[in-house]
Design a protein that fits this description.
Elements lengths: L1 E6 L2 E6 L6 H7 L18 E4 L2 E4 L12 E3 L12 H8 L9 H14 L5 H8 L10 H15 L5
Parallel strand pairs: 1-5
Antiparallel strand pairs: 1-2, 3-4, 3-5
Helix pairs in contact: 2-5, 3-4
Length: about 160
């Protein structure tokens, strides 16, 4: 079946099955920036924003978010026009293999949208649920701190 969704600010028709998770529906329709990690809601690789709230797309049925605003990492910035958050991840060297990066950027975006001056505890809480197998997380934390600094200096979310 085909259903209409609003993804990254555009109305898009997705082909899906009745029991498709949002992750499967997105990936099957070309949104490969949403990564398929654990399919259990434990790694954060499939994180998207649903009406501005970070959600593991592997844990919800696609049909349940029809009519809601879905944002992938490409809705935050894109090749040639990255957001200041994406630039902060690159500048801090927090993108190693890149598999987990979209989920971390989604979580960072949601945090900074709510609070552009987060404490260390708030940063750790916002990133809880995002796993990275390449780093010791220090560069990722540096990236969030740098993005927060840039948000306070006028970065547009």
């Amino acid at each position: 079946m085909y259903k209409n969704f609003k993804i990254n600010g555009k109305k898009i028709e997705l082909r899906l099955e009745n029991d498709s998770t949002l992750l499967k529906a997105l990936r099957d329709n070309g949104f490969t920036e949403v990564k398929n990690g654990c399919e259990e809601g434990q790694c954060g690789a499939c994180m998207v924003l649903i009406d501005g709230r970070p959600v593991n797309s592997c844990q919800i049925f696609a049909i349940s978010v029809q009519g809601k605003e879905i944002t992938t990492v490409k809705g935050i910035g894109r090749v040639g026009f990255p957001s200041f958050i994406q630039e902060a991840y690159v500048d801090a060297g927090a993108v190693q293999c890149g598999f987990c990066t979209p989920g971390f950027i989604i979580s960072t975006y949601a945090l900074l949208k709510k609070n552009p001056n987060p404490s260390e505890e708030e940063i750790l809480e916002a990133l809880d649920g995002n796993l990275c197998r390449c780093t010791g997380y220090e560069k990722i934390l540096d990236a969030v701190r740098l993005a927060a600094k840039r948000a306070r200096e006028g970065g547009r979310l």
